[in-house]
Amino acid sequence: MFILASASPRRLQLLERIGVRPDHILPAGLDETPGKQELPLQYANRMAEEKALHIYQQHPTAIVLGADTVVACGRRILPKADNAPTARTCLQLLSGRRHRVITSVCLITPDKTIYKKTVMTSVKFKRLSAGEVDRYIATGQWQGKAGGYSIQESAECLIQAIQGSYSNIVGLPLYETRHLLLHAGLTCLV
Predict the structure, then answer these.
(1) Which of 40, 65, 85, 177 has its CA 20 to 30 A from that of 16?
(2) Is 1 exposed, middle or buried (0-12, 13-18, 19+ CB in 10 A)?
(3) What Cα–Cα distance (Å) separates residue 115 from each residue in 26, 81, 94, 120?
(4) The dihedral of CA 171, 27, 53, 188: what is its sign?
(5) What is the pLDDT of residues 58-110, one digit of tens each?
(6) DSSP strand E in 32-113: where?
(7) How far apart are CA 180 and CA 113, in angstroms?
(8) At what angle are helices 84-94 and 130-139 packed, to 10 degrees?
(9) Which amino acids are annotated catalytic?
(10) pTM assigned to the model
């Protein structure tokens, strides 16, 4: 049995691209508040492992995949935008700058083997005008998205450059995740 420990529809869509369909989708529902002084990389690693372990403890005969994606500007972890002012603040901070998208993936197998991989992608937004920020906010595509944007929708046209994995920015680095799944004995389409 393969369980995805995530509520993200994007992660499910990405897994389906490589021919993997979880038997169950069980979000861990953990408190995702960063620790005091916790850096983005440490936070992503901790959250991915905690999510996977939480579900694995309930289903110890399953293969469990947990992941966490963080948008980091310097040492700052940007929040998931749950309202327009938060999204606006994030976009204004990212405007004309590079930032990192960090995704940690943790896979636990029934024999308690833990596989982990962390991927960082550099993203550069164009300098955003007030009108561009307003129009993007009006789309609502920022809702629930780390850093206040969703690259797989219209925000992609605001991005000047990407160094690294595109699927990582969406929420699951497919190249690395595929290798973890193959090590765990799952079959992938490609």
Answers:
(1) 40
(2) exposed
(3) 19, 30, 32, 17
(4) negative
(5) 999 999 999 999 999 999 999 999 999 999 999 999 999 999 999 999 999 99
(6) 63-73, 76-77, 98-108
(7) 11
(8) 140
(9) 68
(10) 0.93
